[in-house]
Description:
By secondary structure, this protein is an alpha/beta fold. It has a single domain, classed as Rossmann fold (3-Layer(aba) Sandwich), CATH 3.40.50.720. Helices cover 54% and strands 14% of the residues. The chain has a seven-stranded parallel β-sheet, with helices on both faces.
Amino acid sequence: MTATERSAQRAVDQGAALVTGAGTGIGAAITERLAAQGTDLVLVARDSARLEAAAAQLRAEHGVDVLTVPLDLSRQGAPAELAERLAEAGVEVGVLVNNAGAALVGTVGGADPARIRGLVDLNASAVAETTALFLPAMLARGNGAIVNIASTAAYAPAPYNAAYAASKAFVLSFTHALWHETRDTGVRVVAVSPGATETPMNPGSARGKRRPGQVADTVMAALRGRGPAVVDGRAFVFQTFVFSRLLPTRTAARITGSYFRKGALRKQS
């Protein structure tokens, strides 16, 4: 095991894991994997009832301590409020998983501007602010781990899902840069990019989609790895390679736009 892998494992073993968007989907699957390893948890999401139900199940099945913080991280000041609550509770965060996110399929011209602003605030701004709030303590200890959930949409412009793809491109770029800043500090930083996954944010046919548990397994493997970014699923690894390395940006955008336009039309029908 390398020094980076040992540091990431210590982060899992020694501090609580803070998971945003923890009530359903990928976030819930990640909390299950962490709890199975005996890691205490902090669950953050907007739905307090769902959070409490998830926490009760994790406590009963794995015997871990679970703190729930119902919070809308897209709200200005919410990440700082979260950090203040955990400081008051004496919780030390060893692993931060920035998973909370939202999508908005459709044209920019036909969207509610406030919803676009809220999406960017949640998917990008809250990730950067939350990371900046909890990273200094990890650096001071010389160990910790930060996982930012990006998306395969980060690798190419996505007409009809423009704000989502752009916000995830921010997450991917931010994480790559942060990985370089922290690579010799003992703090593990990695972006994990799922493709289409069976989650409440991505309803419809399950055909071709990954399951949340599969993404969670990729996250746990990424924590033990060394690189700055991981794509979940072999098919999506190939897809992102083609879109980001082989195709001109205009061609990639035309392909992704065709895919998301179908989703936009389904919403209208």
